[in-house]
Amino acid sequence: MALPSLTDQAERLVRLGVHDLAGIPAAGLHELAAAAPPDSLLVTPAPASGLAPLLRLGDKAGFVVEDMTDVDAFAPTVEVPPTPHVVVGLDRGDAFANRTPEESVPEIVAAGRSPLTLAEGLHWVLQDPGVLERNACFMTPGSRLRRSNGTYDARTPALWISNGTGRDGRERQHAPKLGWCWWGNRHTWLGIASCERRTHP
């Protein structure tokens, strides 16, 4: 699962209008690409609700599940540099499949890594759709929704491939899907994604 070159990443984001969604100049993305370390991922502050429909698997467009209308309120729980930024050392977290985010995140942090945010996961799939595979997709536990009382909502954002059942609709079968899973639940087909580090060159 190799990322496109940084130049190609910047060009793709601009071609899709992600810089407009993020409210940043196209030149800024190209400058960041020129200064970023190799094999890193460009990440913008574009909202998840705007990025999800840009995802593609074959001819299928991405979508947000119907019961996650508050998706843009899921914010990083980890320290993130000024955006746009770059992410180094991506890992889909296959080793944590069938583990809960609650169990896995402390181990990820103890290993010197950081749980991936939803924005980072979306940009990853946008640049490398092949990172989503049947029975091998991932959660992004670095983003959560904080309630008004200060506690976290138990939903954990996740990216996977729709089966076209239920409210997804048959027309969305095989489409990239932005949904959620419970913080304390296990799923054999969802890893717990992380990265080595983030930087703002």
How many strands?
14
Indicate the structural class: alpha+beta
- Mean pLDDT reading: 96
**Secondary structure tally, helices:** 6
The separation of the N and C termini measures 24 Å
Integer-rounded radius of gyration: 16 Å
Model regions low in confidence, pLDDT < 50 over at least 5 residues? none
Could you characterize what this model shows?
The chain has 201 residues and is an alpha+beta fold. The chain has one domain (46-81, 88-196). 24% of the residues lie in helices and 22% in strands. The longest helix has 10 residues, at 6-15. The protein is globular and about 40 Å long. It starts with 5 loop residues before the first helix and ends with a strand. The relative contact order is 0.22. The mean pLDDT is 96.
List keywords for this structure.
6 helices, three-stranded antiparallel beta sheet, globular, 14 strands, 24% helix, five-stranded mixed beta sheet, alpha+beta, 201 residues
Secondary-structure map with pairings?
Blueprint: H1 6-15, H2 18-22, H3 26-35, E1 40-43, H4 48-51, E2 56-57, E3 60-61, E4 63-64, E5 75-76, E6 85-88, H5 101-110, E7 114-115, H6 118-127, E8 137-139, E9 143-144, E10 155-161, E11 176-182, E12 190-192, E13 194-195, E14 197-199
Parallel strand pairs: 4-11, 8-12
Antiparallel strand pairs: 1-6, 2-3, 5-9, 6-14, 7-13, 8-10, 10-11
